Amino acid sequence: MPRIIGVNIPEQKQILIALTYIYGIGRPLSKKILQMVQVNPNKRTSELTEEELNRIQKIITDNYKVEGDLRRMVIGDIKRLKIIGCWRGIRHQKGLPVRGQTTRKNSRTIRGNIRKTMTSGRRPASQPT
């Protein structure tokens, strides 16, 4: 498996799709990188030469923040929001949706799949001791 920026890239996928395994690179950016390097996007990763892989890696490292740097930046941004106590930071702290979604019914992605329902009927009386 070829490695680009410390990430194993799958061999049997097209290079356009394989580059999306790197955190911070989606399909549009992958297509843009391959146009800059002049590599056919439909080419399989296993068919690439070492020179082509090196050119792809050089363009990514020189022009874009990916993997560890990007993760640190995102974590730092969230930490800053929490410190200043803004609305988005408070939502991050509480583990609730941040971007205005409703929480009455459908917020299971962020809150987890915990179903809280009322019990039916009254509790039975406690046993005498």
TrEMBL record:
<keyword id="KW-0694">RNA-binding</keyword>
<dbReference type="GO" id="GO:0015935">
    <property type="term" value="C:small ribosomal subunit"/>
</dbReference>
<protein>
    <recommendedName>
        <fullName>Small ribosomal subunit protein uS13</fullName>
    </recommendedName>
</protein>
<keyword id="KW-0689">Ribosomal protein</keyword>
<keyword id="KW-0699">rRNA-binding</keyword>
<keyword id="KW-0820">tRNA-binding</keyword>
<dbReference type="InterPro" id="IPR010979">
    <property type="entry name" value="Ribosomal_uS13-like_H2TH"/>
</dbReference>
<comment type="similarity">
    <text>Belongs to the universal ribosomal protein uS13 family.</text>
</comment>
<keyword id="KW-0687">Ribonucleoprotein</keyword>
<dbReference type="GO" id="GO:0000049">
    <property type="term" value="F:tRNA binding"/>
</dbReference>
<dbReference type="GO" id="GO:0019843">
    <property type="term" value="F:rRNA binding"/>
</dbReference>
<dbReference type="InterPro" id="IPR019980">
    <property type="entry name" value="Ribosomal_uS13_bac-type"/>
</dbReference>
<dbReference type="GO" id="GO:0006412">
    <property type="term" value="P:translation"/>
</dbReference>
<comment type="function">
    <text>Located at the top of the head of the 30S subunit, it contacts several helices of the 16S rRNA. In the 70S ribosome it contacts the 23S rRNA (bridge B1a) and protein L5 of the 50S subunit (bridge B1b), connecting the 2 subunits; these bridges are implicated in subunit movement. Contacts the tRNAs in the A and P-sites.</text>
</comment>
<dbReference type="InterPro" id="IPR027437">
    <property type="entry name" value="Rbsml_uS13_C"/>
</dbReference>
<dbReference type="GO" id="GO:0003735">
    <property type="term" value="F:structural constituent of ribosome"/>
</dbReference>
<dbReference type="InterPro" id="IPR001892">
    <property type="entry name" value="Ribosomal_uS13"/>
</dbReference>
<dbReference type="GO" id="GO:0005829">
    <property type="term" value="C:cytosol"/>
</dbReference>
<comment type="subunit">
    <text>Part of the 30S ribosomal subunit. Forms a loose heterodimer with protein S19. Forms two bridges to the 50S subunit in the 70S ribosome.</text>
</comment>
<dbReference type="InterPro" id="IPR018269">
    <property type="entry name" value="Ribosomal_uS13_CS"/>
</dbReference>
<dbReference type="Pfam" id="PF00416">
    <property type="entry name" value="Ribosomal_S13"/>
</dbReference>
